[in-house]
């Protein structure tokens, strides 16, 4: 018996897969490694996430100028942003299919190509000789292509972090990729009004998009050796997740327990409602605040405070969940979701004249909690399904579906001109807060088991044990090769209780 477990005559309690008394456990002979190459790829995702985020919000601050210059209505300008959310839903469903068949790099190549096409199709719509209808058709076609590019660099974030980062960096990498898009959206709102005329502004967006496209060359598919056990597994198809969620027969690696299915559905609803709430707020913020006496600048500052607080909190908390609160995702959600839900609900009473301080406080609370939860929810989706790209696709798709529904529903509840104040959105805020508080209450039913992390930690322990067992075996073999007579003399000498050279023997008189 060459291992400590065999000499002990039983099973090591640390190894749940070993049932024999004198057999080595079935530990995969895989070397887990990290490569510096992961950081350029992460940078590529961040750059492209920033730029694709700009496409959605670019026309919001200059909506009146675009309407005047292209002789279209403001509603048509709003659809330049809405079309991206509509395209996002089907596009995000196809991304896991492409990823499972062709890998991360091919997906990002497609996203980069779509971004480049969108930039110059949109700019073609600025030609002065075009009729308003033809110009608008090219503008919205450009946004259509941008709608395919945007989800690529969001949906693939969790699978990239799983492929390239270990347990101490996965959540942080997911966070950096996830927040790049909202940061880009904020940058788009800041840049579009200050870069010249409407046509010059569209040209600048095209140049920024073109310069960013080569960043796809920084992204690689997978490292030579995986960072963790989960990182060594191939991407599962979207169909396997759909079948698993419905309780249909699936391969062993795609199986999801009933409780995990319930948790994932709840997580998807909560993620969707909170992302949708943020999307609708960014589109309707001026319509919320201006009827009660706040300027467009103040409405923009309220949105900026939400975003800035969220970015700071995400940067601080994501590394903590990687290294300190590694098994506390469920507890974090049960704390943060009720807090942010109550904050959204409080806007029903807070959106009133001369209440700017309270509004800023509420926006900071919403931003801090929401951005902190963003990478946590994405990582929990992978923990529950062990299917990184497909779970992210479900979550982001849910967010855009909720966003579209909330924008349309709240727009329909705008008060008439005869109301006091005219065109107020009080009924819309009631709908907004009630949706979030009802869906958010489901968080108390989430168990939040981190099955993927448990499997990774088990494999790391097994690998360490195997290395130690190999060293023990090698040491025993080397000791056995010593000269047997010399060894026995040493053993007898060391074990003898009385040796002449160790004690002083007195003669008996």
Automatic annotation (TrEMBL):
It is a multi-pass membrane protein. One of its GO terms (molecular function) is transmembrane transporter activity. Residues 483-492 have a biased composition (Basic and acidic residues). The chain crosses the membrane at residues 39-59, 79-98, 136-160, 172-195, 201-220, 264-289, 301-321, 357-382, 394-413, 425-446. It is found in: Membrane. Residues 37-451 form the Major facilitator superfamily (MFS) profile domain. One of its GO terms (cellular component) is membrane. Pfam families: MFS_1. Residues 477-509 are annotated as: Disordered. Keywords: Membrane, Transmembrane, Transmembrane helix. It comes from the Eukaryota. This is Major facilitator superfamily (MFS) profile domain-containing protein. The lineage of its organism: Eukaryota, Fungi, Dikarya, Basidiomycota, Agaricomycotina.
């Amino acid at each position: 018996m060459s291992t400590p477990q065999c000499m002990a005559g039983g099973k090591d309690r640390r190894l749940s897969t070993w049932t024999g008394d004198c057999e080595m456990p079935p530990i995969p002979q895989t070397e887990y490694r990290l490569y510096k190459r992961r950081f350029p790829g992460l940078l590529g995702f961040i750059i492209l996430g920033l730029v694709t985020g700009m496409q959605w919000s670019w026309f919001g601050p200059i909506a009146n100028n675009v309407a005047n210059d292209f002789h279209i209505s403001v509603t048509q300008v709003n659809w330049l942003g809405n079309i991206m959310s509509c395209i996002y839903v089907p596009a995000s469903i196809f991304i896991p299919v492409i990823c499972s068949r062709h890998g991360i790099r091919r997906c990002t190549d497609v996203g980069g190509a779509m971004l480049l096409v969108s930039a110059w199709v949109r700019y073609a719509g600025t030609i002065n000789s075009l009729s308003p209808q033809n110009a608008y058709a090219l503008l919205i076609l450009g946004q259509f292509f941008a709608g395919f590019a945007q989800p690529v660099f969001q949906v693939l974030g969790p699978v990239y972090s799983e492929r390239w980062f270990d347990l101490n960096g996965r959540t942080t990498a997911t966070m950096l990729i996830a927040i790049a898009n909202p940061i880009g959206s904020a940058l788009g709102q800041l840049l579009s009004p200050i870069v010249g005329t409407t046509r010059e502004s569209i040209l600048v967006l095209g140049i920024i998009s073109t310069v960013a496209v080569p960043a796809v060359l920084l992204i690689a598919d997978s490292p030579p050796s995986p960072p963790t056990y989960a990182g060594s597994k191939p991407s599962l198809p979207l169909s396997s997740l759909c079948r698993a969620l419905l309780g249909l027969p699936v391969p062993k690696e795609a199986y999801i327990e009933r409780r995990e299915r319930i948790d994932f559905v709840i997580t998807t609803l909560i993620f969707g409602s909170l992302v949708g709430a943020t999307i609708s707020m960014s589109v309707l913020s001026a319509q919320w605040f201006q009827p009660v006496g706040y300027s467009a600048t103040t409405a923009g500052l309220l949105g900026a405070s939400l975003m800035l607080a969220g970015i700071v909190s995400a940067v601080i908390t994501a590394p903590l969940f990687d290294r300190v609160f590694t098994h506390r995702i469920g507890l974090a959600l049960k704390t943060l979701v009720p807090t942010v839900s109550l904050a959204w609900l409080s806007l029903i009473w807070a959106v009133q004249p001369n209440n700017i301080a309270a509004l800023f406080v509420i926006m900071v609370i919403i931003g801090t909690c929401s951005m902190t939860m963003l990478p946590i929810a994405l990582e929990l989706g992978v923990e529950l399904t062990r299917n990184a790209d497909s779970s992210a696709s479900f979550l982001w798709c849910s967010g855009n579906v909720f966003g579209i529904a909330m924008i349309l529903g709240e727009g329909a509840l705008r008060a008439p001109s005869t109301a006091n104040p005219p065109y107020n959105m009080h009924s819309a805020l009631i709908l907004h807060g009630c949706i979030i508080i009802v869906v958010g209450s489901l968080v108390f039913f989430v168990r939040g088991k981190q099955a993927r992390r448990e499997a990774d930690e088990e494999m790391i322990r097994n690998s360490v044990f195997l290395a130690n067992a190999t060293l023990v075996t090698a040491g025993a073999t080397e000791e056995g090769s010593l000269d047997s007579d010399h060894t026995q003399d040493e053993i007898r000498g060391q074990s003898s209780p009385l040796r002449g050279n160790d004690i002083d023997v007195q003669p008996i008189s």
